[in-house]
Recover the amino acids of this structure.
């Protein structure tokens, strides 16, 4: 059983991650984690101390649990770049700050670090309003480039195919073929996947979120920093970790919103997708990195998320995740692993680490922190 | 929001929506309205309050004119068609104050009624008697915010001189509409009023569900401490004797989101609390709206008021 320990800012409780039933924490790992959560309250997604919180929490957990593999995600700069209008200088300084935090982690911890940028951001030029079609068009707030389309009328197709901001409309079969999907996987892929041109974002039904000023660019390659490595695709990162970890401790660090344009370290330019599809910052990209295989189908772009999240009560504290993703590196690594990140309801699923700590935010409102213990028997 | 032209009051931005999305009814929150059902959620822009902690300040407090570029422009028949397409049982106005967009909402409710879709709203309850009557004709279920009783609290945190109009409108809406009530608690400011609020609600109808929210300090209160959960839980001890359906939540993992049968004490509806508009039904144990253990009727919109 995986246990979730939630710290709702000064009030802790423990749950079975899958059922949401309360559990009494007993193990050493659970006690350690409760202490760490209490000592490190989350300052907020856009707070200046948000990335520092990731490192400091990780240091504490390393000290107490002594993992051989650490998976960190620094995302504060992504939230700030996305929502706060700023000058180029301010933007560079924010990204530089995220790198400094990653380097501080590397220096203090002594772990060999693999640093991956999730891709450049680009200014939002305009939205593509897909709310008034005869058919149904869906995308999530965090996806800009892709939207799903269901039961479009001929009028919809004429309008969308000639839309100047839409790059491509790909039928389901072609999407499934691209990622070698099974018939079961195909069921959750939208009838058509729409792809926006760089700088344009789909605007579908959504709750009140702030309007972005920058969105992920079409990042067909992303930077990966690992001196001495020859890798050329994000699917190869897992293999590198497997090779290197035999004789040293490894930290895999994901820097969100950092791409080739802003990467100050030596890096390899790695493929970040397939043919016309490039990963945006999000679960599919993280899972591809942590499993070493393309993971488009876990939560396909433009899928009918509400049909799954409204009805399925499993994993109530895991956002849209409805099962623990299989085949992540940390889930099969026989030695100790941890993950820390300022990505809410996310790290414990995409990393598979023994212990993960993440912020718990909803619509970027700070609700506290959550730790998940998948294993405590190592 | 409204403007006056040629001696007539007109809505400034009809059918412009700041939000249009789907959610489950528990996350509004409505705990006793068709548990587990899906709703289409909508909002406009502007508000007649200026709560210092507003979590939607960028919509409620900003000039609606400046927000138009990012608004959805969807006519009522299309909104209703969307709700049907996404299998929504109701449409719920839940972002800002519905009283600032009455003409659009009248049109929407007409379309919704034709399609057999219920409409509900969250409101701060601060409006004229005439407006309350109009809202009652638009919506069949309400969650009314009872923010504080004292004049000083209302002046300092809400920007109004008195809670009297809100209390009057709660009574009025409870007469022929289904209502739930929500109170965000600011520790040290309105927790001392919890018993009086409970008495007021019980005086109208003790079956009214009351959501006591741990305040999420946002906007002007962004740097304030979050209220202490155990402290507020204790402060509700007396109130719980007056009202059987008290919920204490708006934080992840709350223990106080289940419905307990007032007659036998069994848990009749279980929920998950994710805080900040993320609550969810876990299991509804009622049988045709009654407790499965003792058969007592549970106060639910699905059963009592159709
Ligand atoms: S009534 Fe609600 S929307 Fe209006 S200012 Fe207060 S909290 Fe914000």
């Amino acid at each position: 059983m995986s246990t979730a320990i939630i710290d709702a800012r000064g009030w802790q409780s423990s749950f079975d991650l899958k059922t949401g039933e309360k559990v009494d924490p007993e193990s050493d790992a659970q006690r350690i984690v409760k202490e760490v959560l209490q000592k490190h309250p989350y300052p907020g997604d856009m707070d200046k101390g948000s990335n520092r919180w990731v490192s400091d929490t990780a240091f504490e957990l390393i000290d107490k649990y002594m993992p051989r593999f650490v998976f960190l995600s620094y995302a504060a700069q992504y939230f700030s770049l996305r929502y706060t209008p700023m000058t180029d200088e301010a933007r560079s300084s924010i990204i530089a700050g995220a790198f400094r935090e990653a380097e501080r982690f590397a220096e203090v911890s002594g772990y060999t670090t693999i640093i991956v940028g999730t891709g450049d951001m680009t200014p939002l030029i305009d939205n593509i309003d897909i709310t008034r079609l005869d058919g149904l068009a869906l995308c999530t707030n965090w996806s800009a480039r892709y939207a799903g389309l269901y039961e479009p009328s001929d009028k919809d197709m004429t309008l969308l195919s000639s839309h100047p901001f839409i790059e491509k409309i790909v039928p389901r079969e072609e999407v499934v073929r691209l990622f070698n999907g099974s018939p079961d996987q195909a069921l959750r892929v939208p009838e058509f996947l729409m792809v926006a041109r760089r700088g344009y974002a789909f605007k579908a039904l959504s709750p009140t979120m702030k309007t972005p000023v920058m969105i992920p660019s079409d990042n067909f390659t992303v930077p990966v920093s690992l001196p001495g490595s020859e890798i050329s695709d994000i699917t190869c990162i897992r293999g590198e970790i497997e090779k290197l970890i035999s004789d040293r401790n490894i930290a895999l660090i994901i820097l969100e919103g950092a791409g080739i344009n802003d990467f100050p370290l030596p890096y390899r330019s790695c493929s970040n997708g397939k043919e016309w599809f490039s990963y945006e910052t999000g679960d599919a990209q993280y899972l591809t990195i942590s499993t070493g295989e393309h993971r488009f189908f876990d939560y396909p772009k433009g899928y009918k998320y509400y049909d799954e999240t409204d009805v399925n009560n499993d994993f109530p504290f895991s956002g849209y995740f409805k099962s623990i993703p299989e085949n992540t590196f940390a889930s099969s690594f026989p030695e100790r692993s941890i993950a820390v990140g300022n990505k809410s309801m996310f790290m414990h699923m995409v990393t598979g680490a023994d212990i993960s700590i993440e912020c718990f935010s909803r619509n970027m409102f700070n609700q506290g922190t959550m730790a998940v213990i998948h294993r405590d028997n190592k | 929001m409204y403007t006056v032209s040629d001696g007539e009051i007109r809505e400034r931005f009809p059918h412009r929506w700041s939000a249009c999305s789907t959610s489950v009814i528990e996350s509004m929150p409505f705990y006793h309205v068709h548990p587990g059902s899906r709703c289409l959620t909508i909002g406009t822009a502007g508000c007649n309050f200026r709560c210092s902690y507003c979590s939607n300040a960028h919509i409620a407090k900003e000039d609606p004119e400046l927000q138009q570029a990012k608004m959805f422009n969807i006519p009522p028949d299309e909104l209703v068609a969307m709700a049907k397409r996404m299998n929504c049982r109701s449409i719920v106005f839940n972002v800002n104050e519905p009283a600032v967009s009455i003409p659009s909402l009248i049109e929407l409710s007409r379309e919704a009624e034709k399609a057999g879709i219920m409409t509900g709203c969250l409101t701060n309850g601060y409006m004229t008697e005439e407006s309350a009557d109009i809202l009652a004709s638009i919506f069949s279920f309400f969650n009314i915010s009872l923010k504080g009783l004292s004049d000083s609290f209302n002046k300092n945190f809400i920007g109004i001189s008195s809670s009297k109009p809100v209390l009057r409108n709660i009574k009025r809406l409870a007469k022929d509409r289904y209502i739930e009530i929500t109170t965000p608690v600011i520790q040290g400011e309105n927790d001392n009023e919890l018993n009086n609020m409970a008495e007021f609600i019980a005086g109208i109808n003790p079956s009214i569900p009351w959501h006591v929210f741990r305040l999420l300090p946002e906007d002007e209160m962004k740097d304030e401490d979050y209220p202490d959960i155990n402290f507020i839980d204790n402060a509700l001890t007396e109130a719980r004797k007056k009202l059987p359906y008290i919920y204490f939540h708006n934080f992840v993992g709350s223990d106080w989101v289940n419905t307990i049968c007032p007659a036998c004490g069994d848990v009749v509806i279980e929920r998950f609390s994710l805080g900040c508009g993320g609550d969810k039904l876990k299991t509804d144990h009622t049988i045709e709206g009654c407790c499965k253990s003792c058969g007592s009727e549970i106060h639910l919109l699905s059963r009592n008021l159709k």
Q: What stands out?
A: Chain B has a mean pLDDT of 94. Residues 164 and 251 of chain B are 29 Å apart (CA to CA). Chain B has one domain: 2-251.
